[in-house]
Specification:
The complex is a heterodimer of chains A (122) and B (287). Chain A has five helices and two strands, in the order αααββαα. Chain A is elongated, with a radius of gyration of 18 Å. Chain A has a two-stranded antiparallel sheet. Chain A has two domains: 66 residues, Winged helix-like DNA-binding domain superfamily/Winged helix DNA-binding domain (Arc Repressor Mutant, subunit A); 43 residues. In chain A, a hairpin with a 3-residue loop joins strand 1 and strand 2. With 122 residues, chain A is mainly alpha-helical. Chain B is of the alpha/beta class and 287 residues long. Chain B folds into two domains: 213 residues, P-loop containing nucleotide triphosphate hydrolases (Rossmann fold), CATH 3.40.50; 68 residues, Alpha-Beta Plaits (2-Layer Sandwich). Chain B is 35% helix and 31% strand. Chain B has a six-stranded mixed beta sheet with strand order 6-7-8-3-9-10, sandwiched between helices. The chains are: A mainly alpha (122), B alpha/beta (287). Chains A and B meet through helix 2 and helix 3 of A and helix 6 and helix 8 of B.
Chain lengths: 122, 287
């Protein structure tokens, strides 16, 4: 996870997505504890309130859960939920900007499809 | 109120008005960024808030108590300033030993441990330390003081990148442990942008902005594109700053982007850029 101040996403969203990435990559496996707010805060040099805001979004979204007095854990089934969520937003996150760039470069739809097919062959 | 209350502070030095009727309310328990260009009045304000300077007018309260000649209020605050206030020949270890006379919560053991970590020679005289080590020494005093209010004026002056990183981490650890109130006054805005919750911009002795960092950033945007399309788009917008680069026009705008043509692209501003543009804009509007 890399936290930047170069804009486009508020830091709490970067924290949320960074934790999601680590769950998806297996760095934070299901039913294990994630680093504390203080650890996230000092490691990335961000305000603890911002770190907490990112974590709380994931708690509210059913990805993480809090064990009172112990810490925050990854929920069982989180990987599945997250990959479903990422599949749903794939169009908006990746296809839309790709098509916009293709249009700027006058790449036609069949040409783009061909490129995607080539990508799968690799 | 728990926190720092600044009421109508005015301070002049000769013919210069360093602070002009400054009022601020800073609730306890947050990390504040006190930003301003050189000569904006930041250090003067922090010195008045700790009774090292007297205001011509106005009053400052810490947890509801005046700071003027009041040890119970000023004893809650550790001010780290660029001035050296230690006796001429005092050695680092002596300062660590005497810390608890000024700050009841001072932790000499923690101070010595941090000194070892940062390779600060405690047998040296404070005045003989390099700029970087003077800063480290004062930061260690501040962190070990366990004071509920830490006012840090140019905390990372002369520190290398490694030490700056370690110091920011130490400050955040202290904040997490104690929930103290911190005011960071610094010119290295990029490095503290993520740490501070609320920002205060001083300009020519006046408060130009006080806002939560996230609100300030979310309340502005940057938009860029070909000049013609941009001119049309910007016509009814509240523009803070524009910059042309060839035919590309980039603008920082206050408010929400609303609908815009495909040829334009929108991004979030960085805190440092926003600071530069807000203070520049103020200067232009004054001249």
């Amino acid at each position: 996870m890399k936290i930047t101040d170069d804009g486009n996403k508020p830091i709490f969203v970067q924290i949320q997505e960074g934790i999601e990435d680590m769950i998806l990559s297996g760095s934070f496996p299901e039913e294990t504890q994630i680093p504390s707010t203080t650890e996230i805060s000092t490691n990335y040099r961000i305000n603890p309130a911002t770190a907490l805001k990112g974590i709380n979004l994931l708690v509210d979204g059913g990805i993480l859960y809090k064990k009172r007095g112990i810490g925050v854990f990854v929920k069982e089934g989180a990987v599945h939920v997250l990959s479903q969520k990422r599949r749903q937003s794939f169009g908006e996150d990746y296809v839309a900007p790709m098509v916009a760039e293709a249009r700027r470069l006058a790449i036609t739809e069949p040409e783009l499809i061909k490129m995607i097919q080539k990508g799968y062959e690799k | 109120m728990k926190g720092l209350e600044i009421k109508n502070i005015t301070k002049t030095f000769g013919r210069t008005k360093a602070l002009d009727n400054v009022s601020l309310v800073l609730p306890a328990g947050k990390i504040y960024g006190l930003l301003g260009r050189n000569g904006a009045g930041k250090s003067t304000l922090l010195h008045i808030a700790t009774n090292r300077l007297f205001a011509d007018q106005g009053a400052i309260f810490i947890d509801g108590e005046t700071v003027v000649e009041n040890d119970s209020a000023t004893g809650k605050v550790y001010l780290m300033s660029t001035q050296n206030l230690y006796p001429e020949n005092m050695k680092v270890k002596r300062a660590f030993k005497e810390g608890k006379f000024f700050y009841p919560g001072f932790d000499e053991g923690a101070a010595c441990q941090m000194a070892a970590e940062f390779k600060l020679d405690t047998g040296k005289k404070i005045k003989n330390l390099s700029t970087g080590y003077q800063s480290l020494f004062k930061l260690i005093m501040a962190i070990a003081s366990n004071a509920p209010y830490l006012f840090l004026d140019e905390p990372v002056l002369g520190l290398d990148a490694n030490n700056r990183k370690s110091i920011y981490q130490k400050l955040l650890e202290k904040y997490a442990q104690t929930g103290c109130t911190m005011i960071l006054s610094t010119h290295i805005i990029e490095e503290v942008a993520g740490m501070i919750e609320e920002i205060i911009i001083l300009h020519d002795g006046k408060v130009l902005r006080q806002a939560a960092v996230e609100d300030l950033l979310a309340g502005h945007y940057q938009i860029a594109g070909p000049e013609e399309a941009m001119q049309a788009y910007l016509a009814d917008k509240s523009v803070l700053h524009t910059q042309t680069f060839g035919q590309l026009l980039t603008a920082t705008v206050e408010g929400e982007p609303g609908p815009y043509p495909d040829s334009l692209s929108v991004s979030r501003p960085e805190l440092q850029d926003l600071f530069i543009e807000i203070t520049n804009e103020k200067e232009r509007s004054q001249s």
